Amino acid sequence: MNQTLDYLLSPAALHIPDGFLSWQISLICWVLVVILLGVAMRQTREQLGERQVPLMGVMAAFIFAAQMINFPIVGGTSGHLLGGALAAIALGPWIGMLVMAAVIGVQALLFQDGGLLVMGANILNMGFLTALIGYGLYRSVSNRSRGLRLVVTGIAAWLSVMGAALATSLQLWLSETVPLGVVMPAMMGVHALIGIGEALITVAAVAFIFQTRPDLFEVREKEKKGLGWVVVGGLVSLLVLLISPWASADPDGLERVAEDLGFIHLGLEAPYTVLPDYSLPFLGGTSLSTILAGVIGAVVVAGIAIVLARVLRRQTT
Amino acid sequence: MHVSVFDQYQDRPTLIHHLDPRVKVVMMFIYVLSTVMLPDGAWLAFLFSWGVVWTVRYMADIPMEYVLKRSLVMLPFVLAAMTIIFTLPGPPIGTLQLREWQVVISETGVVRFLSILLRSWISIQIAILLVATTPIPDLLHAFVHLRVPKVLVSIVSFMYRYLFVLVDEAMRLLRAREARSAQPLPGKKGSSMLWRARVTGNMAGQLFIRSYDRSDRVYNAMLARGFRGELMTMRPHRMHSQDWVFVLLAGIICLGIQIIGHFIG
Prior knowledge:
The structure holds 2 protein chains of 2 kinds. Chain A is mostly helical. Chain A has helices spanning 2-6, 23-48, 52-66, 84-91, 93-111, 119-139, 146-174, 180-212, 215-221, 227-249, 251-261, 287-316, and strands at residues 71-72, 78-79. In chain A, α2 crosses α6 (119-139). By secondary structure, chain B is mostly helical. Chain B contains 12 helices and 2 strands. Chain B has helices at 4-7, 15-18, 21-36, 43-60, 64-70, 75-81, 84-87, 107-133, 136-145, 150-179, 193-224, 241-264; strands spanning 92-98, 101-106. In chain B, strands 1-2 form a two-stranded antiparallel sheet. Chain B is flat. Classes of the chains: A mainly alpha, B mainly alpha. At the A-B interface, α2, α3, β1, α5 and α8 of A face α3, α6, α7, α8 and α10 of B.
């Protein structure tokens, strides 16, 4: 119980439950995930052959277990690992993606940590996006010095959490579950902090593996492939870096763009019309007030989480 | 953590437990989809939907507290979605005075928030019931029959097998660290956060290498026992008449709930 409530302020809080995303968004994410899973399975089969099943099965169990390893920060909160960047950097991007997909699948199916219909979205955010950003950035310096590689590992790990948080916020907003002006600053603010924990643990873990088992990395460093990862991963990272501050500071801007592009009503184009003259939240309000609401919301949620975690910790010890 | 997390209620002699796992998996997905597709404010449909879950729970003889306690997982998202009460435009039903700010509670917002809450809560309970009434190996095997790629199911089966081993390993690492007092004492500051993070990272790295080497040993052991790239099972799944009756009944109920939700309210 201690652990389950401790995660209120950990990357585990990115696991969206069923009901929070519209079924349209859920299905779109599922389609994307199925395609990517297919590619990942073919790639890893070529790479690993028969070893595919035991290696990825055990490593998925590792990520699951590693997410429980935490370190205390302040109050009742602690730093946790999401592990997407670590898996992709240490095992390679396709293996990392599959491993994370297995972890998220098991968490949803067996522990109800994250929904089933929205599992596609969760895999996309926490498994694929983190692997893409983590490996893409790391690969760009994988031939350089160990120090530089570790620095980039840290940046990549931080950004991977931010990317996952950004994608989660956008999906929640497009599903009309949470207003953008509240979800963006709250999610990005909290995860900017959580990401630091992720970065610290990932860097230390990768440094440890460098030192004890350099052979695990040497195999893949000789490969010539991977330029595509660098380009796509770099672009996605740039996108995360550009969108997050802009959308947090000026949610109206993003909503206008979304409306122009025509995907704002994705969450509402149901065969039924529940709210016929649905006007967008926030077009009336100023963005400053909504940011303030977001900050207040984040503080309230954080406060409740800390108090809850403390009370439960006291009960269990 | 031990397997008993799951199999606490898995061997009760009820109809729900004896259903074919494939039937349960498919019906659960359809039921979740059906629940998520219900429109906002269709209270009667939500009530029926929840009633079905509760009936299944009663039939499967699963304690109420167990389901309720595990459904708390959705709490953080509920807090996040709560803001929609104040932000969705609609007829105001009340105001909240926070110093100089005044927030308006809109009726549309309240309806939408409660609908999201109910959809999520009903979905999560049906998932809890599925896992509580089905042995996990059977559940995973059902996915093979449902045309999920075998490799994927095998990976997840392996993960399930080694989950408990590696979680125990992680717990031993945590215990060892606590014994060496990396935990800051109450009232005292403890060591620097950077140092604590490094210790934690080293533990993760340690666990990574142990897991990696273990996967090697597992693979070699499998080869020695004649592994040819595919996992075999000795438990065939068979559809009985009660399975077909359940499918038919559950299908009619889902359809009925949808009709109530969209046309009655």
